[in-house]
Amino acid sequence: MNKISPLRIYKTLLDITWYSFIIFFTLFLIWNIFNLLANGHIGNSGLVTFPVKVELPQFDFGKLRNAYSFIEKEPATIMIELSKVKLNSLTDSFILTSLLATIIGFGLGLYQIKLLRDLLADVIAKQIFTSQNIKRLRLIGIIELLSIPIGCGLYLIFDYIIVNHSILDKSLSYVPDYWELFSSLPHALEYLIFAGIFSFGLKLKQEQDLTI
Description:
This protein is mainly alpha-helical. It has one domain (6-211). It is 65% helix and 8% strand. It contains six helices and five strands, in the order H-E-E-H-E-E-H-H-E-H-H. The chain has helices at 6-39, 64-67, 93-124, 131-164, 178-182, 184-211, and strands at 41-42, 49-54, 76-81, 85-86, 173-174. The strands form two sheets. The protein has a three-stranded antiparallel β-sheet.
């Protein structure tokens, strides 16, 4: 009995993720079109949340302090989530920017999955050290790197919009997670290093072909 190659398992998982993304996005689009036609608004997205710090009134823990100790490091954080966006409010800067962030994140993630699917398909077909695979690895690494400045830019835009928004309370303070953004840096370096290894492998392969 032939063993199943781990690469084929990874390729299958990527295929499942790829088609799940497409199915989810299609169903989400159909559902929101239906909501827009029937109710005049887009349904609860749940895709983009915004952590915002708020000052809460002083709370007395009373008898709990006898058994527990509390450390108050910073104000509490609430999550703002887009919900029931009406058609006439789609021009709002906060909503437009949040939708833009969703589209950018979804698009880049889907494109990376496609690149990995194509890469594994070539590796399974024993077309490993090719210029196309090197390009794919570099593209994934560059996308991971670009996600950092893009994310920082969106964070700054959200901070400006929230502070100057006509409805949102000016006492709210946007608290983006910059550490989460920079967590993509090691992944970017990994893909770029693998691209270099594949490039070296292609060079050795070409030299070997010349000697035969």
